[in-house]
TrEMBL record:
Protein source organism: Actinidia chinensis var. chinensis (Chinese soft-hair kiwi)
Membrane-crossing residue ranges in chain numbering: 39-59, 65-83, 119-136, 156-180, 200-224, 244-262, 392-412, 424-445, 484-502, 514-535, 580-598, 619-637
Stretches assigned to coiled coil: none
Name of the molecule in the record: H(+)-exporting diphosphatase
Lineage summary: Eukaryota, Viridiplantae, Streptophyta, Embryophyta, Tracheophyta
Membrane topology: Multi-pass membrane protein
Keywords: Ion transport, Magnesium, Membrane, Translocase, Transmembrane, Transmembrane helix, Transport
Length: 700
């Protein structure tokens, strides 16, 4: 094929043989997987059994609830392995499809290796900074009462930070790993049946989603139970169980740190490659999207995996971890104020602390049911009005929502019942229902603003008919308008959940209601109680996008491209849905984190800290600076995308000028050059905005 390209002896576009130039470099396997594959299978099996035995021993020494959480997570991991095997048994299609998929896989894995190598070095540096801060800061009353010294507290926080960063990195890698292997199988399935292609994409996304949520839950559970046993919690002269969640904050920060740079690097990569490929290919040269003649097409397809799969997995992992830990802290604080004491199965403080872990364990169960509710059919052909892929995904989401309502009610009765306020569990159950309704509202709002069937997108399409200017104006106005409904929904949910918690009947020694903040925390749990299924829909998007690119590049019949185009259009909506979902849950979680922060400040200052007075000049200025940071961060991120896209545009133009045979299929483009440009530029550009987000709070 290469010789024919060099000599120019290729037939017409449709007549030439459907073989694609081999672009594959040496495949990359992470070090940990290389070590595991070299271990004898029997030795590995024994090591796994010993590890599981140790985990369950620690869990049993902590609480039966922890054993339940471990059991659900491990079963979910086995289920994810089944989904992986099911997806990987599907055929990869003809050789030209496989070669394109291999090129995408190599590009994604190469960028991931370099990006996470950079992030890991920064994480180790930050861990040393955290260690030094904790070694020299004053101790809290809780640490003094439990005999927990500065050095112990410092090393616990650093260990939690590094574990959170590691788990977040694994979550991101898993999202990318499955997408680069499922894309070609979806492309191949689209040649037979639209429903089969949909099912493969959903189950591949489901594997990643289950692993991400499971990693977040089991990571917190292992840390909690390990500290519980190691520190002898609740024994005479040691730490109280209500103070234990404060030791977990490092885990959430580690997850946030990795998610920040994964989102930044992956986002710059995917948008710069997309803009660069489209500006020259579609606008200047007039060739279709994902055309094999475009030198930046492989970089564009790689970007879908590193930006939308790996980064989104790390992002949602961080949201869930932060929500779990903040809710555990608030649950412990409320149980302490309300003097809730006792042991399992009677009313006990651990019920309020471990409630978030139980909710997300049920999330794994109900989301798995939603994923498996999407079945394949034997009918082949293009998806038409009878079988809309968005409607099929919505049915699966409806199944998940129904099961979430049922399991949430059971969880609150099981974990949050107390004789001091017998009806409190019902109020908290309603708080969870508020959160579930908020999640559904966010999904619906995002779908309304991004789905091509609804008025906003159709209006935007009409505005495009009068030129670029009116299209940009209409698009910006639509984006600004789309913020209104989500803010209203979040506002109503926060106030409603706080009121339900406030009137739950739980009071402190002075008779003051104390359940308001915890009610908001429960609403956040309700919103994230279907996170695994929502993340499944998100992973579906880039997999379908990649599948469409592979079909276009391998010159498949138009009927196949029609199927992948419909899946791709729906995938764009599901990707936007998850962005809205993640932002909404982050808004609720930020309210919780701020409350947890106030509790931490009160512990250090030895004075109550219940409200923030913006009439104080320093506080007001702090608010202004925080608002300014959002715009400055966004400006730097957009500027980074623009500069990187310029480099891609210049490279693609250069190749079209220096290799005129590309347009006639007589010369092949240098795809690797564009991949290398975007990878190196995005890694360089992510440092400045990321440093701004981390350093600015310290400076202020």
């Amino acid at each position: 094929m290469d010789d024919e390209m060099e000599s120019g002896n290729l037939g017409a576009y449709q007549d030439r043989p459907r073989t694609f130039p081999n672009m594959r470099s040496k495949p990359y396997t992470p070090l940990i997987f290389r070590i595991l594959t070299r271990i004898n299978i029997r030795v590995l099996f024994i090591l796994v059994l010993l590890g599981l035995g140790a985990i369950f021993y620690i869990g049993a020494s902590t609480s039966p609830i922890i054993v339940f959480v471990f059991t659900v997570c491990i079963i979910s991991f086995w289920l994810s392995i089944y989904l992986t095997k099911w997806v990987l048994t599907k055929d990869e299609g003809p050789p030209e499809m496989v070669q394109i998929s291999d090129a995408i896989r190599d590009g994604a894995e190469g960028f991931f290796r370099t990006q996470y190598g950079t992030i890991s070095k920064m994480a180790i540096l930050l861990a040393l900074v955290i260690l030094s801060i904790y070694l020299f800061r004053s101790t809290t009353p809780q640490q003094e009462s439990s005999g927990l010294g500065r050095s112990t507290s410092a090393f616990i926080t650093v260990a939690a930070f590094l574990l959170g960063a590691l788990c977040s990195g694994i979550a991101g890698y898993v999202g990318m790993w499955v997408s680069v292997r499922a894309n070609v199988r979806v492309s191949s399935a689209a040649r037979r049946s639209a429903r089969e292609a949909l099912q493969i994409a959903v189950r591949a996304g489901g594997f990643s989603a289950i692993v991400v949520v499971g990693m977040a839950v089991i990571g917190v559970a292992i840390l909690y139970s390990t500290f519980y046993v190691w520190l002898g919690v609740d024994s005479p002269g040691s730490m109280k169980v209500t103070d234990l969640p404060l030791l977990l904050v490092g885990y959430g920060f580690g997850a946030s740190f990795v998610a920040l740079f994964a989102q930044l690097g992956g986002g710059i990569y995917t948008k710069a490659a997309d803009v660069g490929a489209d500006l020259v290919g579609k606008v200047e040269q007039g060739i279709p999207e994902d055309d094999p003649r475009n030198p930046a097409v492989i970089a564009d397809l790689v970007g879908d995996n590193v930006g939308d799969c790996a980064a989104r997995g790390a992002d949602l992992f961080e949201s869930i971890a932060a929500e779990i830990i903040s809710a555990m802290i608030l649950g412990g604080t409320m149980a302490q104020r309300c003097k809730i004491e006792g042991k399992f199965p009677f009313p006990y403080p651990s019920g309020f602390i471990l409630f978030p872990l139980v909710v997300h364990s049920f999330d794994l169960v109900i989301s798995s049911a939603g994923i498996f509710s999407i079945r394949g059919t034997r009918d082949s052909g293009v998806i038409g009005a009878i079988e809309d892929p968005m409607a099929i995904l919505q049915k699966g989401y409806s199944v998940t929502i129904f099961l979430a309502v049922v399991t949430f009610g059971l969880s609150t009765r099981w974990m949050l019942y107390t004789e001091q306020a017998p009806s409190a569990w019902l109020n908290f159950s309603l708080c969870g229902l508020v959160g579930i309704m908020t999640a559904y509202a966010f999904v619906w709002i995002t779908k309304y603003y991004t789905d091509y069937k609804h008025e906003p997108v159709r209006t935007l399409a009409i505005s495009s008919s009068t030129g670029h200017g009116t299209n940009i104006i209409a698009g910006v106005s639509l984006g600004l308008e789309s913020t209104a409904l989500p803010v209203l929904v979040i506002s109503v949910s926060i106030v409603s959940a706080f009121w339900l918690g406030h009137t739950s009947g739980l009071v402190d020694d002075a008779g003051n209601p104390t359940g308001g903040l915890f009610g908001t925390a429960v609403a956040t749990m309700g919103m994230l109680s279907t996170a695994a299924y929502v993340l499944t829909m998100d992973m579906f998007g880039p997999i379908a996008d990649n599948a469409g690119g592979i079909v276009e590049m391998s010159q498949q019949p138009e009927s196949v491209r029609e199927i992948t185009d419909v899946l791709d259009a729906v995938g764009n909506t599901t990707k936007a849905t998850t962005k809205g979902f993640a932002i909404g849950s982050a808004a609720l979680a930020s309210f919780l984190l701020f409350s947890a922060y106030m509790d931490e400040v009160a512990a250090f200052a030895h004075v109550p800290f219940n409200q923030v007075d913006i009439a104080i000049p320093e506080v007001f200025v702090g608010g202004l600076l925080g608002s300014m940071l959002i715009f400055l961060f966004s400006a730097w991120a957009c500027s980074a995308v623009g500069r990187t896209a310029q480099e891609v545009v210049n490279e693609v133009r250069r190749q079209f000028i220096e290799r005129p045979g590309i347009m006639d299929y007589k010369e092949k483009p240098d795809y690797g050059r564009c991949v290398a440009i975007v990878a190196s530029a995005s890694l360089k550009e992510m440092i400045k905005p990321g440093a701004l987000a981390i350093v600015s709070p310290i400076v202020v």
